Amino acid sequence: MNGAGNAFVLIDARGRSAPLSLPAERVAAIHARHAFDQLLTLETHPVETALLRVWNSDGGEVGACGNGARAAAWLLFEQDGGETLSMSSRGGRLTARRLEDGRAEVNLGRPRLSWRNIPLSRDMDTEALDYEVHLPGGGRLTRPGAVSMGNPHVTFTVSDVSAIPIAQIGPMIEHDILFPQRVNAGFAEIRGSDRIRLRVWERGAGLTQACGTGACAAVVALHRQGKLGRAAEVEVDGGRLGVRWAEDDDVYLTGPVELEGEVDLGGLLS
Ligand SMILES: N[C@@H](CCC[C@H](N)C(=O)O)C(=O)O
After folding, report:
1. Are 84 and 151 in the same domain?
2. 56 has binding-site annotation
3. Catalytic residue numbers, as ranges
4. What is the DSSP track for 5-27?
5. Pocket of ligand 1 (CB under 6 A)
6. 265 in a structural domain
7. Nearest-angstrom CA–CA distance, 109 and 207
8. Three-state secondary-structure class, residue 75
9. Is the ipTM of this complex over 0.95?
10. Does the residue 163 lie in any domain?
11. Are residues 144 and 240 in the same domain?
12. Domain count within the chain
């Protein structure tokens, strides 16, 4: 599947009697069979519609994936019908509703804004971090906003996102000592009070076509800095995402999802 170009392999393991065991070497073997940005699993949950788990392509299990949650919700609606559902995830409880056009809108909950919750390695104002990055050709990026959407993000405001050498500076930011759990790094060009262009270097996956939690974190961070309204269309390399930071403080994400086909994982899940 993909969500605005963010590539997934999704294993629907609901109804399986034994819990799925996915150590890093098994995630790597699945990635070698069929490359993905994130591996997603759906398992049976005693209370919620399903349990959603997420691994990056580097084999690390993570707390949240906005596009993955949208893709999983879309699949559950396609298979089981209904108008609303809930999923348990490491980053918290997620709810989703089916929109009239068939898309799924996911509620990713409240953004976490304190330095301990991002997390950062020391006390700092998360609205505009005292942190700067020097660009290889000269110039620098400063004062990114930091937000956790169940996973850590920083968003830099840039004047021309196509001019940023993301593949060069992304790994450096991801592994900076300021971010004890590493970080996802977003670069946002503001195109209006409700429109941005965004590219994200994802922790554990590199530069992807779209990052849903990155889009949510960008809207929250830029709104806190007075640069954007509470809702925006986020143009990413693989399409357009819709983000709304509602008055109840929850962040809602929607956008396109495609089911591309099935992958034969025979022998890899036993
Ligand atoms: N592509 C995802 C984010 C996946 C997890 C992220 N790379 C992390 O390590 O936190 C999205 O759509 O949110």
Report:
1. no
2. yes
3. 65, 211
4. TEEEEEEE-TT-SSPP---HHHH
5. 6, 37-38, 56, 62, 65-68, 151, 184, 202-205, 208, 211-213
6. no
7. 25
8. helix
9. yes
10. yes
11. yes
12. 2
Compute CA distances 92 → 86, 156, 222, whole Å: 11, 26, 23
**Is residue 142 part of an annotated ligand binding site?**
no
- The reply to whether 91 and 8 lie within a common domain is yes
Per-residue pLDDT of the chain (270 residues; tens, 9 = 90+): 999 999 999 999 998 888 789 999 999 999 999 999 999 999 999 999 999 999 999 999 999 999 999 999 999 999 999 999 999 999 999 999 999 999 999 999 999 999 999 999 999 999 999 999 999 989 999 999 999 999 999 999 999 999 999 999 999 999 999 999 999 999 999 999 999 999 999 999 999 999 999 999 999 999 999 999 999 999 999 999 999 999 999 999 999 999 999 999 988 887
Quote the tokens at residue 125. Answer: 């104002």
CATH number of the domain to which 192 belongs: 3.10.310.10
CA of 183 to the centre of ligand 1 (A): 10
Distance CA 227, CA 190 (A): 8
Domain holding 83, by residue range, is 2-110
In a domain, 260, yes or no: no
Q: Ligand 1 test: best mutation among 6, 213, 252, 254, most atoms within 8 Å of CB? A: 213
Instruction: Tell me whether residue 262 is in a domain.
Output: no
Task: Tell me which residue has its CA closest to atom 3 in ligand 1.
Answer: 65
Whether this model's pTM surpasses 0.95: yes
